[in-house]
Amino acid sequence: MSAIQADIEAQLARVEPEVEVLLAELVGGHTVRLFIDHPAGVSLDLCERVTRHLPGVREKYALEVSSPGSERPLSKPEHFRRYVGKRVRVRTRTERDGRKSFSGELLGATDTEVTVAADTGVVSIAYADIHRSNLLGD
Predict the structure, then answer these.
(1) How far apart are CA 130 and CA 94, in angstroms?
(2) How far is CA 24 from CA 5, 9, 64, 93, 124, in A?
(3) CA-CA distance, 116 to 9, in Å (whole number)?
């Protein structure tokens, strides 16, 4: 998890405890893209409230807050565990057999790695080697 994501999670935990930060990523060095979820769903009002709760982030970066959509990002072990059996795409930081992207059924998720039934076979990928990952829409 990035330092920006950890900071945002800590800030929101105090003022919007039901908001789950799915992913906070720095894009182009000047924009923070923030994907959030909430048990009651993500509304425009919630996105605006979250934006207002993060003045320190807005001072340094442009801030985009949005719902995850059907291709929701997966960034934590509990995210992966929740979607075992679903189709995912996992992009790695380093190449494995000449590839950095693996798509297929998510077979499992431990505290240290995920296992995906990709088109090239079953592959286990450590969280530390995951650059980005998301569900694939049906």
Answers:
(1) 9
(2) 5, 9, 10, 17, 24
(3) 28
Q: Give Cβ neighbours of residue 40 (< 8 Å, ≥ 6 apart).
A: 18
Taken in order of first residue, the domains within the chain and their CATH numbers are 3-66 (3.30.300.20), 77-135 (2.30.30.100)
pLDDT in tens, 27-61: 898 999 999 999 888 999 999 999 999 999 999 99
- H helices of 68-125, in order, are 77-82
Tell me how far apart the alpha carbons of residues 105 and 88 are, in angstroms, rounded to a whole number. Answer: 6
d(CA 55, CA 28): 20
